[in-house]
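Colleagues,

For the teaching module next term, I've prepared a clean inverse folding example: a structure given as tokens, and then the sequence designed for it. I'd like students to try predicting residues themselves before seeing the answer, so please don't circulate the second half yet.
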């Protein structure tokens, strides 16, 4: 299941607990309730402002071990499948992120070298 990271314009608040939610979420990430049509209507009428929204998006870097929805490590429930996230699942999500980081370090080094060489080329030509 491929999902996109929510953008600022998609942010809402849960009707029950006021936790951040995004358009298309099926469950609340804090209290775990299923969003009904009435909940969605309420959230549409009570959108969050853009201030304070970006840090919430940037923390969504983990994937649910069941449905692969984007999550924050502090989430208590998956907003895609509604699974309650326990400490074992959080450990698995952290391990996956660390594994990906370990595999991608050559790309980061390559990008850094490219940026430095480009910077020096601009200075030499300028």
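(Answer key — instructors only)
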């Amino acid at each position: 299941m491929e999902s996109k990271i929510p953008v600022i314009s998609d942010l809402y608040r849960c009707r029950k607990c006021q936790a951040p939610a995004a358009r298309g979420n099926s469950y609340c990430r804090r209290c775990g309730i299923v969003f009904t049509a009435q909940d969605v209507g309420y959230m549409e009428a009570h959108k969050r402002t853009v201030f304070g929204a970006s840090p919430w998006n940037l923390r969504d870097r983990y994937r649910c071990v069941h449905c692969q929805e984007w999550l924050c490590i502090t989430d208590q429930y998956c907003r895609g499948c509604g699974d309650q996230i326990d400490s074992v699942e959080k450990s698995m999500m952290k391990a996956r992120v660390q594994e990906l980081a370990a595999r991608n370090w050559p790309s980061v080094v390559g990008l850094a070298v490219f940026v430095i060489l480009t910077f020096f080329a601009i200075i030499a030509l300028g």
